[in-house]
Design brief:
heterodimer; A: mainly beta; 7-stranded mixed beta sheet; 4-stranded antiparallel beta sheet; 11 strands; B: 5-stranded mixed beta sheet
Amino acid sequence: GAVVSQHPSRVICKSGTSVKIECRSLDFQATTMFWYRQFPKQSLMLMATSNEGSKATYEQGVEKDKFLINHASLTLSTLTVTSAHPEDSSFYICSAPRGQGHHEQYFGPGTRLTVT
Amino acid sequence: LAKTTQPISMDSYEGQEVNITCSHNNIATNDYITWYQQFPSQGPRFIIQGYKTKVTNEVASLFIPADRKSSTLSLPRVSLSDTAVYYCLVGDKDSSYKLIFGSGTRLLVRP
């Protein structure tokens, strides 16, 4: 069964509004989670590393003020796309490492964001 | 994090064995090789991981030569449901777990 969930699975919002996407680890704790973005027919692009209890680490070129990340608990990380625009429309995926000593990661099912 | 190179796409037919090779010339001593599968509009799914020689699980086999500069994912007797994108990644097990995805290989299995 799924070990990482995301909510919502798809969302449509108007340009200029903000959208929050939740990523939850089920039955395990994740001090670190990762957020990716994927455009059609392209690979996953790492956006940021979400760290429980501290600030997220953003990849080069990703605006931290636009993509707000909060990792308030050991099982929940949220990504808020602020003032969304049509070019933010994409598939957002989160992941969490299986655990210490394992390179395997569990990925969420993804969230399809469409900004109109 | 070592960069990987894979074929952009591959075609196969049901029942055939499919081998997807990944090049990772700059792999570090502590790096492991991991393969993920992704279906459209879904998150990637772990397939297999290895360090050297051969690893086999219920889904696939992973062949890694002695120099570890490449690896081959082998899918035995593919079915239509194996049509997906396959990603090869290398990284340190004890690192921050950050994964950098390459372009992946789009496998199409035909009837």
